[in-house]
Design a protein that fits this description.
This protein is of the alpha+beta class. It has two domains: 3-115, Phosphorylase Kinase, domain 1, CATH 3.30.200; 128-365, Alpha-Beta Complex (Aminoglycoside 3'-phosphotransferase, Chain: A, domain 2), CATH 3.90.1200. The protein contains twelve helices and nine strands. It has helices at residues 3-10, 59-79, 128-145, 162-175, 184-200, 202-209, 249-259, 277-291, 297-301, 303-324, 336-353, 355-365, and strands at 19-24, 32-38, 46-51, 104-106, 109-115, 215-217, 226-228, 234-237, 244-246. The strands form three sheets. A five-stranded antiparallel sheet has the order 1-2-3-5-4, covered by helices on one side. Helix 4 runs parallel beside helix 10 (303-324), helix 7 (249-259) packs across helix 10 (303-324) and helix 8 (277-291) runs parallel beside helix 12 (355-365). The structure holds 2-acetamido-2-deoxy-1-O-phosphono-alpha-D-glucopyranose and magnesium ion.
Length: 366
Amino acid sequence: MEQNQLQEIVSRFAITGTVAEIAPLGAGLINDTFRVVTAEEDAPNYVLQRVNHNVFPDVDMVMRNIKAVTSHIRQKLEAKGESDIDRKVLTFVPSKEDAEKIYAVVDGNYWRIMVFIPNAITKQAVDPESSRDAGRAFGNFQAMLADIPVQLGETIKDFHNMEFRLEQLRTVVKEDPAGRVSEPQVQQLLQEIEARAEEMCKAERMGREGTLPKRVCHCDTKVNNMMFNDQNQVLCVIDLDTVMPNFIFSDYGDFLRTGANFTAEDDADMSKVGFNMDIFKAFTEGYLESAKSFLLPVEVENLPYAAALFPYMQCVRFLWDYISGDKYWKCQYPTHNFVRANNQFHLLKSVESHYEEMKQFIAGCL
Ligand code: GN1
Ligand code: MG
């Protein structure tokens, strides 16, 4: 996009300072992100983002959720007398047109601006020390949001609903739009998935029976969705588009899916895939430290299930996209989505082999 178009978009927001430069930032696959540098020494820099309204059909709901969440966290931090609050929670800038709104629609696209957090970094991988801190941070995030006074919307319907994800897969298997269902490797993976389907849907069943609550969760707790300071400590949690009510398994399980895999989720060398118990232990300790005060026994008991559920769900989602003909995730080569699905299945098997050890470790943390 042209500088003057971007400048025009920024001018719709009540920022302080004058814009000196706008340049692309990061490599997100869902939203488009830019860094906005201001000319004045004492004015903050900003992050400008276009929200992908194909993935998030109700951007107004996304932004109302984000506004409620960031202001609630800010209040909590203030009440605790925390210092450096502007680096511990994201600050979104209101639009000039409507001070209540933290986004603007320009030519059918949805834009938002937040204050750039100085001297902070994101990471693609974690060591046990930063995992412990990450566990604490996500536990804290859930704890701070436990008494948010508004009902948050579901920004992607049935996002982590396992029954829904399986139905999506079964439907596309019947349609077979890309002619991939008959591939022997696909058949084998489908069998492995079906063999575990009943067990993996137990959260939805417990939800219906009323024994498992939904709480406000982040729902995309990947390693790279946290900002760290230069002392390797978590400052804050970012990427709040998927914050919504869910079973707490989402945040616990999805962090381990990315953080505790010995390799990337799309590594084609299956011998490298496996579940790193050192990361599991450190993350679990940190998480329980900040979350055990509000978690129910049924939630704690099922943390090993959560560690299995997320590789399983991601395996189902990647295989669904492979069979669909690669419509959702960008692929670098024709079998990329199948490799991802297979990688997540190998991770699942490794998680399954550690079930007993996980249970014992969790019992020791209480
Ligand atoms: C997507 O956009 P990103 O990479 O943060 C997906 C997650 C998946 C992940 C797998 C909205 O996340 O649920 O776990 O890919 N987000 C959405 O890499 O579908
Ligand atoms: Mg992200």
